[in-house]
Amino acid sequence: MNPSSDAPTPPPLTEGQRDALLKLLADDDLAVAEVARQRLLHEGPSLQPWLRRHSLSDNPTLRRRTRELLRHFGAAEADARMCSFCRRAGDDLDLEEGVLRLSQTEFPDINADAYRAVLDDWARQVDEWMPTDRSDVDAVLAALHTVLFQHLGLRGNEANYYDPDNSYFSRVVDRRTGNPISLCTIVLLIGRRLELPLSGIGLPAHFLCRYQTPTREIYLDTFNGGRLLSRTDCIAFVNQLGRPFESAFLQPVSARRMLQRMCTNLEHAYENLELQPQLARVRRYHELLGGG
Fold first, then answer.
1. Which of 116, 191, 197, 232 has a 20 to 30 A CA-CA distance from 185?
2. Pairing status of strand 198-201 against strand 208-212
């Protein structure tokens, strides 16, 4: 007879049982270690404080396997948080929260507050170069360019454009390289801290930042060293793709739409790499955001 699908859940592990499973987890026999791993996974995230103690073990096998379990639990929790975030109504999502939550689904150990602190510091550096008169658009843009693209070295990852890391905000900050939309996200979040009139612009096959005042409209190509473009340049770019220009191409993109586009980029990357679990995870976010 097949076991019932609603069989009672086993009681929580005792301290002695946990210690016994820990020894089995470090066993050289992979089949034995896997039995222990599955039982610990079944116990659930409540084991994390206990596992963290053993993740510093002198036994390298035990250290590695406990860290793998911690990463599994961390990723599951990050996935649940991201799904909850994607279910929020409206286009006016918090872009910063969204990209950090997305990063944690792949890198659950990252400290979101540490990345916020990095953005705070980069914004402070830009502010030190800013003109006293913020109406001097050229000087403001020069400050952004000097700090972000010259001193910090933000650049497009031309050598490996389809690397999934180009779409994970934490990795883009760490490596200071990424794809157009991830680099624009850095500029937008710094601009938000400095109250600059910046918005994201989703051209076909490219993404830009726009700096707009009542008298000026300038586009920043963050992937190509922060070069400045005019509206005419943007139209020419679209025409070079063989597409007729539409004014909608230069309309600001909401945070929700930006996150959808990031998910699309990750879907393409994971399809090319044939990484099905990651692909399924990102597709779920895309669908929850309304892009399915």
1. 232
2. antiparallel
pLDDT in tens, 48-103: 899 889 898 999 999 999 998 988 888 899 999 999 999 998 888 999 999 999 99
SS (H, E, C) 185-237: HHHHHHHHHCCCCEEEECCCCCCEEEEECCCCEEEEEHHHCCEEECHHHHHHH
The CA distance from 25 to 65, in Å, is 7
The parent domain of residue 199 ranges over: 95-289
What is the DSSP pairing of strand 177-178 with strand 198-201? Answer: unpaired
Q: Confirm if 234 and 208 have CB atoms less than 8 A apart.
A: yes
Which of these, 85, 93, 274, 269, lies nearest to 179 by C-alpha position? 269
Please state, in angstroms and rounded to a whole number, the distance separating the CA atoms of residues 120 and 215. Answer: 29
The token duo for 129 is 């170069």
Kindly report, residue by residue over 211-234, the tens digit of the pLDDT.
Answer: 999 999 999 999 999 999 999 999
Q: What angle do CA 11, 16, 21 make, to 5 degrees?
A: 80
Same domain, 53 and 133: no
- Number of helices (H) and strands (E) in the chain: give both, helices first: 12, 6
pLDDT in tens, 105-118: 999 999 999 999 99
- Count of structural domains, the chain: 2
- Say if residue 120 is in the same domain as residue 205: yes
Write the pLDDT tens digit of every residue in 166-185.
999 999 999 999 999 999 99
